Amino acid sequence: QVLLVESGGGLVQAGGSLRLSCAASGRTFGSFFMGWFRQAPGKEREFVAAVKWSDGNTYYADSVKGRFTISMDNAKNTIYLQMNNLKPEDTDVYYCAARGAPSGPYHYWGQGTQVTVSS
């Protein structure tokens, strides 16, 4: 099992910045990818960004490219999501996720952290 705990959400004005953190514990050596997803009420959960644990390669949704940066700290088993130039449409619950394979669904999820961007 992998336990994921997010932190860093909050309320920010449009154009502002926030940094989310996700600390992983448990069988973290099995985490091939870790990433961030977001979901608004009544909508499907959508992919935001991911990082490949073995080589640090990163992947982003088109909607956040150039504004968000995902990074990792191997020693702390933690990933981060630096969110700059936030927009009201970025308002969502953000979830950290991990999977132990190169492809397929993410098996482990955090509890989510609310990000609210006011206009």
Produce the secondary structure layout.
Blueprint: E1 2-7, E2 10-13, E3 18-26, E4 33-39, E5 46-52, E6 58-60, E7 68-73, E8 78-83, E9 92-99, E10 108-109, E11 113-118
Detailed description of the structure:
Strand 4 and strand 5 (46-52) form a beta hairpin. The termini are far apart. The protein has 119 residues and is an all-beta fold. The chain is built from no helices and 11 strands. The model has no long low-confidence stretch (mean pLDDT 93). It has strands at residues 2-7, 10-13, 18-26, 33-39, 46-52, 58-60, 68-73, 78-83, 92-99, 108-109, 113-118. Strands 2, 4, 5, 6, 9, 10 and 11 form a 7-stranded mixed β-sheet that branches. A 4-stranded antiparallel β-sheet has the order 1-3-8-7, with no helix packed on it.
Concise synopsis of the structure shown:
The protein has strands at 2-7, 10-13, 18-26, 33-39, 46-52, 58-60, 68-73, 78-83, 92-99, 108-109, 113-118. By secondary structure, the chain is an all-beta fold. 33% of the residues are buried.
**Number of β-strand runs:** 11
Helix content: under 10%
Distance between the termini: 40 Å
% residues in beta strands? over 45%
Largest sheet: 7 strands, mixed
Apparent shape: globular
Low-pLDDT segments: none
Number of helices: 0
Given helix and strand content, the structural type is mainly beta
Order of helices and strands: EEEEEEEEEEE
Give me the Rg, rounded: 13 Å
**Averaged pLDDT, please?**
93
